[in-house]
Structures are given as structure tokens and as C-alpha cells.
């Protein structure tokens, strides 16, 4: 005979994790890792609908969310959709990002502004998730995916490095604002990860990068996802921190 505790555990609703930019690269790896940890996963995408739908078929218990995070109206609609589809958010992974690459002399103001708009979208989505879900439930985890270049700098990527540095500052400030609320806020800062973004690097550039990585290889998306899953489900005494995952390229 099944005892009442087992029946309760079987019928209890799954915790919900939202991953922005979940259709590709690091985002996909995070979705898979969180699903394996028992989360119901909301897969956000903007353009990568085919990849997001394929991923949904692989994790089964999840749902799709389409939005341009640079558009505040779409972010608002996304928050409402989460409320309708899930009714709760236990973990928010702010992974989505864009990289506008150009040196300071040739970059146009509207290009710079498109990078800035992404940071504003991350801020606003986090604000809505906090207000609608986490502050009401009295718990939650916010995990921001930043980058090593927010600490080291990178030529030709000034707006991107500024955004990633700001994201880590956001992490530290929000952790303090949420003092005593049982909501943990952390950043995971990847180094050079083997994704579509780094596949396009010329061989000489890739080789120079590898020469500076003590572990001698590019990271895999799963290397980042493992840390995200740890922060989402365990990591109970970590908040306001930036965790570097870069094979020894930078120690923080």
C-alpha cells in the first residue's frame, strides 16, 4: 500500500524554472539540466522557434515562451503567459543576450542602443518575476549568465562587455536589496564556450584563446549548465556571487 507521504510527493506540483534564450547553446544545456533536476522548464526564445520546439519535445514537461526582451510590452506579455501556463516561478535564468561587435570608431549609436535595450529587458523581466511570483511565495533563485569579458574586457565588444559587467553589478545589488527575503541571486560567468558564437572565430584567434586556458580546451555548454543546476537546486548559502567557469582563464 502506498503511504500518504508518497502520494503527496507524487501529486505535488513541480518547481518551475524559466530560461531565457533557451533554444540554443548554453540556454538549451540549462533547460536540459534543470529538467533532469525535476524542474518544469519554460523555454524562452525570440527567433529560434524550431530549436525551441525540438527541445520541448526532448524535455516533455515544459512550455514555450516567445518574446523580444528589448520590447517592454512583449516582456509584460511573457510574464502574463508564465502566470497562465505555470502559476509560479522558482528559478529564473537570465541567459538570453546579443553581441554587437564593432570598434568604437565604427559603431553607430543605434547599434550601441540595441545592446543596452537587452540589459533593460533583463532588468524588467526580473522585476516582473519577482513581483508576480517570488516575493509572494517568499523564495526563489535568480541566476544571471554574464561573461568573463565583463571582467577582462575584449576589443571590438565594448557594449557587450559593458552589459556583462553591469549584469554582475546587478547581481550583487539585487542580492542586497532582497536581504532576508529568501531569494538568492547569483551570476555564472562563462569563459569561451564551444557554441555557434565561437565556432565562427578564425583559427588563429581560437588558438590564441586556447593558449591562455590552463585546461587547454573551450568549455562546453554543459559545463555552464552544471553550475546553473547546482545554484538552482542546491547552493543554499550562496548569494551575490559571481561564479567563474572558464577553465582557469580568469580567476576573479
CATH level-3 fold name:
Rossmann fold
Q: Any idea of the CATH class?
A: Alpha Beta
Order of helices and strands: HEHEHEHEHEHHEHHHE
- Separation of the first and last Cα atoms: 54 Å
Global morphology: globular
Poorly predicted residue ranges: none
Determine the strand fraction and express it as a percent band. 15-25%
**Radius of gyration, whole Å:** 18 Å
CATH-scheme architecture: 3-Layer(aba) Sandwich
**Total helical elements:** 10
Strand order within the widest sheet?
3-2-1-4-5-6-7
Query: Would you tell me the overall average pLDDT?
Result: 93
Quaternary structure state of the chains depicted: single chain
- The computed structural class is alpha/beta
- Number of structurally distinct domains: 1
Characteristics of this structure?
globular; 252 residues; Rossmann fold; 7-stranded parallel sheet; 49% helix; alpha/beta; 15% strand; single chain; 7 strands
Description:
- With 252 residues, the protein is an alpha/beta fold.
- It has a single domain, classed as Rossmann fold (3-Layer(aba) Sandwich), CATH 3.40.50.
- It is built from ten helices and seven strands.
- Strands 3-2-1-4-5-6-7 form a seven-stranded parallel beta sheet, sandwiched between helices.
- Helix 3 links the parallel strand 2 and strand 3.
- It is globular, with a radius of gyration of 18 Å.
- It starts with a helix and ends in a 7-residue tail after the last strand.
- 43% of the residues are buried.
- The mean pLDDT is 93.
